[in-house]
Design brief:
The complex is a heterodimer. Chain A is α/β, with parallel strands linked by helices. Chain A is built from eleven helices and 24 strands. Chain A has a ten-stranded mixed sheet, covered by helices on one side. In chain B, the strands form two sheets. In chain B, strands 2-1-5-7-9-11-13-15-17-19 form a ten-stranded mixed sheet. Chain B is built from twelve helices and 19 strands. Classes of the chains: A alpha/beta, B alpha/beta.
Chain lengths: 489, 450
Amino acid sequence: MPAVQETVARVREIDVDKYKYGFTTDIESVRAPKGLNEETVRFISAKKGEPDWLLDWRLEAYRRWITMQEPTWANVVHPKIDFQDLYYYSAPKSTEGPKSLADVDPELLETYAKLGIPLAEQKLLAGVKESRVAVDAVFDSVSVVTTFKEELAKAGVIFCSVSEAVKTHPELVRKYLGSVVPITDNFYATLNSAVFSDGSFVYVPPGVRCPMELSTYFRINAENTGQFERTLIIADKGAYVSYLEGCTAPMRDENQLHAAVVELVALDDAEIKYSTVQNWYPGDKHGKGGIYNFVTKRGDCRGARAKISWTQVETGSAITWKYPSCILRGDGSRGEFYSIAISNGYQQVDSGTKMIHLGKDTSSRIISKGIAAGHSNNTYRGLVSAHRRASNARNFTNCDSLLIGDKCGAHTVPYIEAKNASATFEHEATTSKISDDQLFYCLSRGLSAEEAVALIVNGFVRDVLQHLPMEFMAETQKLIGISLEGSVG
Amino acid sequence: MELPAQQFRTKAEQAYLDMFEGARKALPGARDPFVSGLRSKAIETYARLGLPHRRIEAWKYTDLRARLTDVHPLLSAVGVPVGEADLAQALAAAVAGLPSYRLVMVEGDLRADLSDISGLKAAGVEVVSLAQALEKPPSWLKAVLGKVNPRDDDPVLALNTALMTGGAALRVREGVTLDKPIHLVQLDGTGEPASTVTRNVVVAQPGSSITVAESFGSLGIRGLQRNAVTELLVGDKAAIRHVKIEREGDDALHLSTWLVELGADARYDAFQFSIGAAVIRNQVYARFAGEGSALDISGAFLMRGRQHCDTTLLVEHAVPRCTSRELFKGVLDGEARGVFQGKIIVSPGAQKTDGKQMAGALLLSETAEFDSKPELEIFADDVVCGHGSTSGQIDEDLLFYLEARGIPEAQARALLIQAFVGEAFERVEDEGLRNAFAAASAEWLSVRLD
């Protein structure tokens, strides 16, 4: 099948040994002492000049964390992580000070240029005005620069690093931080709450449509360093924001930990579109090294008719453990999850979503495509639940997997819980979803059966890819080409 | 399944251990080293695992440890007089009168007076009462008992092996095709709350073809706790059609485990119909051991009040070229809760596997609940596997269509409900059984209409 061949070829292309972002940057950095204790937490807080309430918040999380056990339910295998053998804070020395582009270490700018992330405020595609992207670049534990700040400020949009927001907008941070993912949520989220270093903060005021795409680019550089970023996005009533996130890390023999927390809050009629292209270093072809990506992402549709959409393309990381979720609290709110997860080499992916229907007339849609190659394991794990009062809740789930080679595994673990009779849930994980009508239409126009299938499949995938902002689409299409043909649930 | 060692025991957990200690010397086969060895190993497994609870993934939606607070003493057969009228009462006339080779077990005891043992023997089927056979098991029984798709991670199964007191063991001779179903009837007694632990063993030797119906009914005992296991070995080129009809008393606990293993080019078609009992757990472990075989495990459940029905399937494609199908339909009214957990495992190398699974629930009341977890675990690339799960209420468009044609709403609803479960009944080949299910669902619905 041409479609299958194309997919196979493209997946090989992104083979683990060809990781092109594996370089390191020699840059002087400041680190917290190795290991984790109350002093580390205080060190990070002091380094960032945080107010007392935030330090107390961190300490509460830390005290809770030391009583917690690592979760073991995910379908992943890894040696026990020694949490005392990590650096919890690492920052490039030169970034302490005012954050304007001119002050940024040229070494850093070059690093981002190498990664294809232009930090200079310029048009990305000539002649296309809408395509400008504001970037917040996070290097190890700190945000080094945020572009287009003034222009965004004119529209009333706040886009800065979380540590900056703590200083400039403490009331917003205090109100929303931890309101979606509480510090007690889970082992890694609690750890993150104690030691989170930096991340992006976005606030879009009522009725404002954010004039450009916002994006954060995460880079782990230092050795033995965990990255614990925290992102908080708030779309006030009637606001709209599209946010993208990209991640890379150097090739290193040891495993590095990345435990981020992302919180989204959408109030009445607001919409947040969150896209991720995750390309952390996946380890070499023998499964050595790579990032452990243990991330908690959750969106709260707090207001009526709010909408949150997650789109993710997961190609990197040795282990991925990630379930971007939507809490559909507001009446008429909507959650979406579009995912493409590719695993190769010895990668392990356990990813999926949770759609929790609490309000009336809420709807959600889940489209997940997993591709496993090499010796990898790719698991979709998802929860769709409707609570007693979630009348007329609606969900459609479709998850397909494709296996390439006989040494890999693809698994599907959906949980569907309907506690309300008027909730309509449909879940399918099938292969033969190409409609006979479409096939017949193509055949009657002279296409061969194979071409017809390829066309339909490509059209279907394009539909999913189109949920990515245009700037990422080109990159993503290079990264993957997907086909449903021969796939299994 | 990774299970942590039990730290402490609940009252019920301890009660089973005490029950075993107390009954040990009197259990059938106590003097036989094979049987007593089997029992000791099983009770050790149970002691290690304890009763399953919601932290155990396979029991996430059915917290047996929390639900089972009191364990009733083992039921001992006291020879309750049972006549045809009682059978019809307990099973419904259509089921009781099913043209079949009938084997009736009352309180676990195989009752010759109600059974057609001689007819079965003449047709080429060996039949033994398990209670008797355990005292000195024949070699063919030793070769299969506890060995059909065995598991050591299931505490309910382990308890059954440790405490089994009755049931029937059948062996169908090579090439035998029966003209009517074998009907295994299990009835409890009429007295005080009790536990009954039974096991049926069915061996279909190569090339044979049979239908086995198992029905469970109540003569009026209070608070029955049943733990029933059926082991089925489908030989090469053999076929078993297997049907279960569960109509226990309203307050009964019904734990059922099927262990199924298929040889090469074999066929297994099973159907489970559940309508009675307070808490039902139907688990089926099926495994393909020979290539070119096919199975279909389907079922329907009609639940109301506070009934709880859990169907948990595990189909293991261990070899290439096998086909599996599952279709479960449930109707939930009142505060009833339905659970469906279906898992298909495709082992490395099991190429050309075709596995499909579907579960659907119709929720008739605001307070009914359906939890579904269809799982796939696939380690081979040349396979076609899929699953689907739906839940919802009666389609208003369909209802409108019927009402527009002059059918009163209540009747229209009943019709749609019957059509919904009827799709599952179509999987049953035997017409008599199919009609019996349709009649039972109509009766269930008539209660609702009143």
